[in-house]
Write a structure and sequence with these properties.
Elements lengths: L2 E8 L20 E2 L3 E2 L2 H10 L3 E5 L5 H7 L13 E5 L14 H6 L2 H7 L1 E8 L2 E3 L3 H11 L3 E7 L9 E5 L5 E6 L8 E10 H13 L7 H11 L4 E5 L4 E3 L3 H11 L26 E2 L4 E3 L2 E2 L4 E2 L2 E3 L2 E2 L4 E2 L4 E3 L2 E2 L4 E2 L4 E3 L1 E3 L4 E2 L4 E3 L6 E3 L4 E2 L8
Parallel strand pairs: 1-4, 1-6, 4-5, 8-12, 14-17, 15-18, 16-19, 17-20, 18-21, 19-22, 20-23, 21-24, 22-25, 23-26, 24-27, 25-28, 26-29
Antiparallel strand pairs: 2-3, 6-11, 7-13, 8-11, 9-10
């Protein structure tokens, strides 16, 4: 059955800039905002936009991500003749296996996209925090009738050299693409969100694979190739909240933003909910010595210390005379007595022993990795 649009979420990046936090899990599976994981935003945007054919392309450390997504039921994507599919690398006849880049990942999953038979394909990143109605972008795409529409967001001009920059004419047609230019000509930064006419993109990828095999990445190769060949490429401007959480600092900042009850994302908006797969934990419990100020604390938490300006995921234990301030603590972490945590991110199932400290600054966030232990006696000291 012909489908108007299918979505492909690129969730296979190694996430090396998140260091310890992605040593044992894929970046899109990293917890965010207390009860969510980063990929929940792209999946929820698809569901709320009415896009039910979704492929999630994974590669590095996919186990936790696969378990989280399952069959897509939590996002209402478990539908007859549609739904979410986990797509992992496999050995093919031409020797391809690991994805060499974003475009190569799409090429290697042509069979899945062809089985859906879409007119358009929406390419998304799995590590951005935002709400977006993709159907509005599709309407803009159909109005201009280009081969490709790229979502862009205005950034401060002094920050533009960190992004791929789209230079456009008066009609928003892209006339030049610059990857992290030293002297940017505009401030329209690519969000890594693309709508392609599938037949055109497929033709480019298949023909390139049979010849030079150089179209590995959308930003570095495919978009410049489209522009060089005279294909119509348009920019779609997005001006609401959007955050790339690919670094420790940006992940911490986005979590701090998220606690604001007047946050632009309007997380309590019932018309555009962010869905997630949650386990059933008992309600949070705050002892007579516990205290919580301006923080988000999820179910299953046991708080015997003080939590201030912080985000706590599920099932966290905080001992007496301990404090957490301006920090993000991920699910299953245990913090003992007399512990002090400031300006830090504590990974899932980490253990902070009695009397230990994890102290960062607003400019240098301290990080404790997944299952990491801080403090306590070492084996040769017991």
């Amino acid at each position: 059955m012909k489908t108007e649009i299918a979505a492909m979420i690129l969730a296979g990046g190694q996430g090396s800039r998140l260091g310890k936090l992605t040593k044992e899990t894929a970046k899109p599976a990293v917890p965010f905002g207390g009860r969510y994981r980063i990929i929940d935003f792209a999946l929820s945007n698809c569901a709320n936009s009415g896009i039910y054919n979704v492929g999630v392309i994974t590669q590095y450390q996919p186990l936790e991500l696969n378990e989280h997504i399952g069959n897509g039921e939590a996002w209402g994507l478990d539908r007859y003749n549609s739904g979410v599919k986990i797509l992992q690398p496999y050995s093919s006849e031409d020797g391809e296996k690991w994805f060499k880049g974003t475009a190569n990942a799409i090429y290697q999953n042509c069979a899945f996209i062809d089985s859906v038979d879409p007119e358009y394909v929406l390419i998304l990143s799995g590590d951005h925090i935002y709400k977006m109605d993709y159907m509005k972008m599709l309407e803009d795409h159909k109005k201009n009738n280009p081969a490709l529409t790229v979502a862009v967001i205005p950034v401060e001009l002094e920050e533009a050299s960190r992004f791929g920059i789209m230079n456009t004419d008066g009609s928003m047609r892209v006339i030049e693409f610059e990857e992290k230019p030293k002297v940017p000509k505009s401030n329209l930064a690519s969000m890594g969100i693309y709508i392609f006419n599938w037949k055109i993109l497929r033709k480019y990828l298949v023909e390139d694979q049979a010849k030079e095999r150089r179209l590995e990445d959308f930003g570095k190769h495919v978009i410049p190739e489209f522009i060089k060949n005279g294909e119509a490429v348009f920019a779609y401007s997005f001006e609401d909240y959007w955050k790339d959480v690919g670094t420790i600092e940006s992940l911490w900042e986005a979590n701090m933003d998220f606690m604001n009850p007047n946050h632009e994302l309007e997380i309590r908006d019932a018309n555009w909910p962010i869905y997630t797969k949650s386990q059933a934990y008992p309600p949070q419990f705050v002892t007579e010595t516990g205290n919580i100020k301006y923080s988000m604390v999820s179910d299953g938490c046991y708080i015997a210390g003080e939590v201030t300006n912080s985000s706590l995921s599920e099932n966290i234990k905080l001992g007496t005379n301990s404090s957490i301030d301006h920090s993000v603590v991920m699910s299953g972490a245990t913090l003992g007595k007399n512990v002090r945590v400031e300006y830090a991110i504590i990974g899932e199932s980490a253990k902070i022993a009695d009397n230990a400290e994890v102290i960062g600054t607003p400019d240098e966030i301290a990080v404790v990795g997944y299952h990491e232990t801080v403090g306590g006696l070492k084996d040769d000291e017991e």
